[in-house]
Amino acid sequence: MSTHPIPFTPDLAVKPEVVAFFDEPTNTISYIVKDPNSNACAVIDSVMDFDYASGNIAYDGADKIIGHIRANGWTLEWLIETHVHADHLSAAPHIQSKLGGKLGIGDQICVVQDTFGKIFNEGTEFQRNGSQFDRLFKDGDSYQIGTMTAHTLFTPGHTPADMVHVIGDAVFVGDTLFMPDGGSARADFPGGDARTLYQSIQRLLTLPGEMRLFMCHDYGPNGRDIQWETTVAEERDHNIHVGHGTSEDEFVKMREERDSTLSMPKLIIPSLQVNMRAGQLPPPEDDGKTYLKVPINGLNTSKDQ
Ligand SMILES: [Fe+2]
């Protein structure tokens, strides 16, 4: 069961406006979270358009988010990354360059930067202290979005640096959970751990049952339409991986067996190199152009060992 209690009291009277943007190529949902009592908002988990085959990048998806914020006269105060994503590239620096705001991630980003700094043989100019971000969150930290107080919950397991953000009655779970019929995210990336993920999920499920949960991904299991919103109570009762009192050992066995069958996400190699730099591309080389690396047999996961 949960070992660490929730270190704050959620304020369910605060009901932020949540606008979702679905990125079809990566099945990612980005959010604008807007304070009902001011013009302030935050953007959670934005997506850069990246065509691996051509090496071309674009910002059509991120520009829709920017357009929505501008059209409503809102002020962007925060850009949040729930974790270092392995399946899409962040557009946070692009949005920040247009609208301002501070970029935040969990402080365990340093562990992720250390791991992937080695895997990609980054030189000493690649800082592994999280300094590319404006704010590094610890468990139970808080920050303001206008009149709303947002709280962070450290929820490792999928990666070592996942943070869930609790804003009024809305909870942005990142990849800690999927919709009830989707279950949970994989825990086999470097630094991931199924047992740790189970404990993080159990902690999350001690939040009040009526709280709204917003997913970072949905794959429309069994042919259903894409969905991204559920509640704590729905997850407790119906989640196919952790609901109905599934034990830790049952979960770990299921998760590890399932992960051993999954291939790597298509964009993991470019995603990690960009997202560990807070969404910035690597510095240009001596010809002034920017390159990404492919480490041959370098991305060892539990599947390969
Ligand atoms: Fe993820």
From TrEMBL:
Could you name the domain of life of the organism this protein comes from?
Answer: Bacteria
Q: Which GO terms describe its molecular function?
A: hydrolase activity; metal ion binding; sulfur dioxygenase activity
Q: Which UniProt keywords apply?
A: Hydrolase, Metal-binding
Q: Which InterPro entries match?
A: Metallo-B-lactamas, Mito_Persulfide_Diox, POD-like_MBL-fold, RibonucZ/Hydroxyglut_hydro
Its EC number is 3.-.-.-
Pfam families associated with the record: Lactamase_B
Q: Give the Metallo-beta-lactamase domain ranges.
A: 27-217
Q: Could you tell me which species this protein originates from?
A: Devosia equisanguinis
This chain belongs to the protein called Putative metallo-hydrolase
Which Gene Ontology BP annotations are present? glutathione metabolic process; hydrogen sulfide metabolic process
